[in-house]
Write a structure and sequence with these properties.
The protein has 284 residues and is α/β, with parallel strands linked by helices. It contains ten helices and 13 strands. It is globular.
Length: 284
């Protein structure tokens, strides 16, 4: 039985540098992976609008997961048949896991009034304000605001009030996930659930293959993805420690940050596969 490797990767702070949002250091490895036909699945808190641009820049034509596991977009004809429980959306098969954004905006505005002085949501920030908070340019900020399933908020209050806010949201049926800069409020979906579902589609597609998953991420919102993969790679962050993993025993922690660490880990884990395909394609 052959082995099919699939890579699931976070973006901010992982494949993209935390400060510059650049992936330059990972580009040669991404090129090797394309030639080796090893899919790289972006699994991120970012939006569809953001991924349209980023995937083109990274030269990726694989499925991708948006908004912390809220939905998976699969380019039509990725698999021989359309997966069950998906709908056609433009050039994709779309698998959704939770309620749309408006549900959570209504919940925040109607049932969380006492906490409103202590946070800023994407929906209330202008593009200029979001640029200031994130370092994105105006076009990137506009795309980041085009969310479909959840609402990121920047907490500006104290930790005690934040704890009460999170508890209140959970009582109302929301999930609260801490990302690199924002808390993401939405339904009960996560990057791990999306990884498991999409991996199963690959298993069905590659009927005679043993599908083997590698996940790479740096933040708390990556924990479920890292714990669901066969091998977890924690990317060193310049702004926080490695989040603890409790259900993963095959874990690598990088020495370098962001895309440099990403490339180091992939080269170490897939050295044999990448070198073989490099020789075959005369890329060395």
């Amino acid at each position: 039985m052959t082995k099919q490797t699939i890579i699931f990767s976070d973006l901010d702070g992982t494949l993209l540098d935390h400060y510059s949002y650049q992936s330059t250091a990972a580009q040669p490895t991404l090129k090797q992976l394309r030639h080796a036909e090893i899919p790289v699945i972006l699994n991120t808190s970012k939006t569809l609008a953001e991924l349209d641009i980023i995937r083109a820049e990274l030269k990726l034509d694989t499925p991708f997961i948006i908004e912390n596991g809220a939905a998976i977009y699969i380019p039509i004809n990725t698999f021989k048949t359309q997966p069950e429980d998906t709908e056609v959306f433009k050039n994709y098969w779309l698998k959704s896991f939770c309620s749309p954004r408006q549900h959570w905006l209504d919940l925040l505005s109607q049932q969380c009034e006492q906490f409103q002085p202590y946070y800023q949501g994407f929906s209330t920030l202008s593009s200029a304000e979001l640029c200031q908070v994130t370092g994105l340019d105006s076009a990137q900020a506009e795309r980041a605001k085009q969310r479909q399933y959840g609402e990121p908020v920047q907490w500006v209050g104290d930790e005690k009030t934040k704890k009460l806010f999170v508890e209140h949201l959970i009582e109302l049926g929301a999930s609260v996930v801490q990302g690199g800069r924002f808390m993401h409020i939405g339904g009960y979906c996560d990057k791990g659930q999306a990884l498991i579902w999409l991996t199963e589609q690959y298993r069905e597609h590659f009927a005679n293959s043993n599908v083997y998953t590698i996940a790479l991420g740096d933040g708390e919102n990556d924990i479920s993805m890292l714990e669901a993969a066969d091998i977890a790679v924690q990317i060193r962050s310049p702004v926080h420690d490695f989040p603890p993993l409790y259900q993963q025993y095959k874990t690598t922690q990088t020495q370098r940050y962001g895309p440099e660490g990403w490339a180091d880990a992939i080269q170490q884990l897939l050295a044999n596969q990448l070198s073989t395909h490099l020789r075959q394609s005369n890329l060395v």
